[in-house]
Amino acid sequence: QLEAYWGPKIPHPQRMGRSPEYAALVEHICENDYLNGEVIRLDGALRFPPK
Fold first, then answer.
1. Number of neighbours of residue 27 by Cβ within 10 angstroms
2. The whole model's pTM is what?
3. How far apart are CA 23 and CA 40, in angstroms?
4. Nearest CA to 10 among 48, 49, 38, 40?
5. How high is the mean pLDDT in each 10-residue block of the chain (51 residues)?
């Protein structure tokens, strides 16, 4: 139900993230010595307005 509701609302791609995609980001963060202190959004460009 969650994916059916949110999937079409995500700009690109129009679906929920998949476990291998999140795992690939975690792997990259762990392996990249040059990456530090960064906020990485893995959200398909979905943004919520401020409250």
1. 10
2. 0.70
3. 14
4. 48
5. 88 91 95 91 86 83
Residue 21: partners with Cβ closer than 8 Å, 6 or more residues away: 42
**Secondary structure, 3-state, 1-51:** CHHHHHHHHCCCCCCCCCHHHHHHHHHHHHHCCCCCCCCCCCCCCCCCCCC
Q: Which residue has the tokens 């792997």?
A: 27
Find, among 18, 15, 21, the residue nearest to 40 by Cα. Answer: 21
Can you give the residue ranges of every domain in the chain? 1-51
